[in-house]
Design brief:
- The protein is mainly alpha-helical.
- It has one domain: ABC transporter involved in vitamin B12 uptake, BtuC.
- Helices cover 77% and strands 2% of the residues.
- A hairpin with a 2-residue loop joins strand 1 and strand 2.
- The radius of gyration is 21 Å and the shape is globular.
């Protein structure tokens, strides 16, 4: 291996690592606020890429109908919960409408826009709206009633949600894979490297989202509320911060990150209905490296995962997945030896 090949592999690894960094930060975000190890994070990636691919064909994506069904289920659950607590049909109907209206509007606009063949940028924005709307609904249907459950129960639920979303992806998208056109086809020569416009978009979009997340948590009231919930859920409730609202907002942000990752990775590889699982697991590896608590460590871990994957695919392509996931073992061993076991002690 000479310097030029090593440079190409490093660039390819950093490009994939930027995607894994977004997913890793999404997983860390969900875990710190809700204690949910969100395994289905990768499904949002597949939904984002496949939704844009169906938009490109001029058809209505299956995620539109899935979103409408999920919104109806969440609205019925909200109606039942509100009526049971307040004994008021009017209050229940208002709560159900509040849950159903926004996803229904997104579905109506998307169904109208699909055959219009708008520009790729408009289709990408519609895709982000659709996938982001899934986040609060998934939280409402699967997790909101389990706010006091243990992390093990929440993990089991996450596994169930993953299988459900994968099966629904097969139902609404089929088994055929799709590869989206690049957002920018230009190429730039940097010495021995040939930087594509799509790779540049991935780096810029990842950096912009990381900066936006930092500004959100540091400058906005909602961001500070999420930080307070992550630090102390009981204390946050005592000062008037709704943990349910925090959970829905967190899942919306995780869905936005997943959908954006799907848009970015769609032009670089063929995406199938179940492709999100492996992609999400690599983001999970990055999150584990960060201890499911540190965003900078997750970012560095994701870049390392991408580079190791690129070099592993060059030296032993058949074992590149094994090499990537084996990284978790020494990290877990080191954390087990250096950290206490306070949960068991108390």
């Amino acid at each position: 291996m000479d310097f030029s090949i090593a440079s190409i592999l490093t660039l390819d690894g950093l490009t994939n690592g930027a995607i894994y960094a977004l997913l890793g930060m999404g997983i860390v975000l969900v875990f710190t606020v809700t204690r949910v190890i969100f395994i289905p994070q990768g499904e949002f990636v597949a939904y984002g890429a496949l939704t844009l691919a169906i938009f490109q064909t001029g058809q209505v994506p299956g995620t539109v109908w899935l979103l409408l069904i999920l919104a109806a289920v969440a609205a019925l659950m909200e109606f039942g919960t509100t009526w049971r607590h307040r004994r008021s049909v009017t209050a229940g109907a208002i709560a159900a409408l509040r849950t159903f209206v926004l996803p229904a509007i997104i579905c109506a606009v998307s169904a109208w826009a699909a055959p219009q063949q708008f520009s790729m940028l408009v289709q990408a924005l519609l895709t982000l709206c659709i996938v982001t709307a899934f986040g609060p609904l998934v939280y409402r249907v699967a997790y909101q009633s389990l706010g006091g459950a243990s992390s093990l129960v929440l993990l089991i639920v996450s596994v169930g949600v993953h299988f459900a979303m994968t099966g629904l992806g097969l139902l609404f998208f089929g088994a055929e894979g799709f590869r989206n056109p690049s957002f920018w086809d230009s190429r730039f020569a940097l010495g021995p490297l040939n930087l594509s416009g799509q790779a540049l978009i991935i780096f810029l979009a990842s950096a912009a989202l990381i900066v936006m997340l930092w500004l959100f948590f540091e400058r906005s009231l909602y961001g500070k509320a999420l930080r307070a919930t992550a630090v102390n859920r009981l204390g946050a409730r005592l000062v008037g911060i709704s943990t349910q609202t925090a959970g829905q907002l967190t899942f919306a942000m995780a869905a936005l990150i997943g959908g954006l990752s799907g848009l970015l990775i769609g032009p670089t590889t063929t995406i199938f209905f179940d492709s999100g699982f492996l992609i999400g697991l690599k983001g999970f590896v990055a999150g584990v490296i960060g201890g499911l608590a540190s965003y900078p460590a997750a970012l560095l871990g994701a870049l390392g995962v991408g580079v190791i994957e690129a070099f592993g695919s060059f030296w032993a392509s058949s074992f590149k997945e094994v090499i990537v996931f084996t990284i978790v073992l020494p990290v877990l061993l080191w954390r087990s030896l250096t950290s206490g076991h306070s949960d068991e002690e108390h």
